[in-house]
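Z., the sequence and structure:
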Amino acid sequence: MAGTDHAVSTVRVVTATCPDEATAARLAEELVRSGLVACAQVGGPITSVYRWQGAVERDEEWTLTVKTDAATAGRVVEAIVAAHPYDVPEVLVGAVEGGHVPYLDWVCEEVGRERP
């Protein structure tokens, strides 16, 4: 698949916020080990301001960012939500419009690869 436009149209970035670094790191490792994502980054802390149950809240959170493909993105969202401690976790999927094609090809090759 190297050098194709297929990877550009197929790669997805999934982001989620987590209450702490440990949760984000655990999710990152589980998703990579399972083969649902090619790689994951944990960043933070960040400050999130949002409205919840009628009140404006402000919390420290950590960001989880993972790369997968379009066919697997739904399963990634389900896995994050199932393991997440929040009642309504933020989990967003974005399409990749461009990038370094060899990297995008690598993402597509890694997702779903048989694991030992």
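The chain has one domain: 6-110. Residues 80 and 99 are 25 Å apart (CA to CA).

Let me know what you think.
H.
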